[in-house]
Amino acid sequence: MSAHQKPDANETEARDALKLSSKEIFEIIREEGEEELERPNRSLMWSGVAAGIMISLSVLGEAIFRTYLPEADWAYLVENLGYCLGFLVVILGRMQLFTENTITTVLPAIYEGTAQIFRRLATLWAIVLCANVVGAFVVATLFAHTSAIPADIRPAIESLSYHATGFPALEGFQRAIPAGVLVASIVWMMPKSEGFGFFVILVFTWLIAAGDFTHVVAGSVEMAYLVVQGLLSPFDAVFRFFLPVLAGNIVGGTVIFALLAFGQVRNELDEDKPI
Predict the structure, then answer these.
(1) CA 177 to CA 245: how far, in whole Å?
(2) Most distant CA pair in the chain: distance in Å?
(3) Which among 49, 73, 150, 220 is least buried, having the fewest CB atoms inside 10 angstroms?
(4) What is the pTM of this model?
(5) At what angle do helices 84-92 and 41-54 cross, to 10 degrees?
(6) CB atoms closer than 10 angstroms to residue 274
(7) What does the alpha-carbon distance between residue 245 and residue 238 come to, in Å, rounded to a whole number?
(8) Is the dihedral of CA 18, 19, 21, 25 positive or negative?
(9) DSSP assignment of 100-150, as one string?
(10) pLDDT values of the chain reduced to their tens digit, one per residue, 275 residues
């Protein structure tokens, strides 16, 4: 670029994104969280159902790779690229995914610290989580009881589902903590990833799958796939898989990542608060 040429808008935005401080990233995510908290409940519900349905692409993508890749040591790593598909659609499509809300809507709540905003946070979490699960059951029923999915792929979906829901409760909880941290990391890095958000999501969700960590929403599709066929009891689905993994994702996304993110900028934010 010559000395007299002005950088185009995309280059300027990219450079500005790279210069963002931790405080500025916090403020961007906090403002996004405030917008989410102000959305009508019905909008949250439908967006959450859509996310629960579309996250099934992670299960489907991984199953397709597992079905058609040759048996080799490297196949596992390639197979897990399929897991990224659902997250790419849901996150880039701005759908309501519960594990994103373990940081996005938490930051404004801990910043303001009022009972009212915590009540609104609890309401949003309940709506989005229930909607995600409803979407997961809808698509799992479609997979299990229609011809929408080729018969060749079904054994891989079943195998993945047994594996995802087969951990003891404590292990499922522990494996969910890194997944919560990784999803929160995606949210934190997106403001600085101008033009590269696709790759941030791809790499970090691939790591969730490759690391064999547990995710409550993607895993709910696998859980539902077994439940609707009578292959997993409701008790085991709820108490061995769902609740432990939910708790682990919350610990990773909120207790660890969100509180640490808040802690590193808290003093700077206090300086800006009106007295």
Answers:
(1) 8
(2) 70
(3) 73
(4) 0.88
(5) 160
(6) 3
(7) 10
(8) negative
(9) HHTTTTHHHHHHH--HHHHHHHHHHHHHHHHHHHHHHHHHHHHHHHSSSS-
(10) 444 444 555 544 545 555 778 888 889 999 999 999 999 999 999 999 999 999 999 999 999 999 999 999 999 999 999 999 999 999 999 999 999 998 999 999 988 889 999 999 999 999 999 999 999 999 999 999 999 999 999 999 999 999 999 999 999 999 999 999 999 999 999 988 878 899 999 999 999 999 999 999 999 999 999 999 999 999 999 999 999 999 999 999 999 988 888 888 877 776 655 44
Are 259 and 250 in contact by the 8 Å Cβ rule? The answer is no
The terminus-to-terminus CA distance of the chain in angstroms comes to 47
Amino acid at 187: V
Q: Using only C-alpha atoms, what is the Rg of the chain?
A: 20
What b/e sequence results for 26-62 when a residue is b if at least 16 CB atoms lie within 10 Å of its CB, and e otherwise? Answer: bbbbbebbbebbeeeeeebbebbbbbbbbbbbbbbbb
Encoding tokens for residue 214?
């547990």
Amino acid identity of residue 265, one-letter, is V
| DSSP tag of 236 | I
Q: What angle do CA 228, 180, 31 make, to 5 degrees?
A: 110
d(CA 248, CA 242): 10
Contact status, residue 99 vs residue 215, Cβ threshold 8 Å: yes
**88: helix, coil or strand?**
helix
| Site of tokens 């689905």 | 237
- Find where tokens 């033009």 sit: 195
Length of the chain in residues, anyone? 275
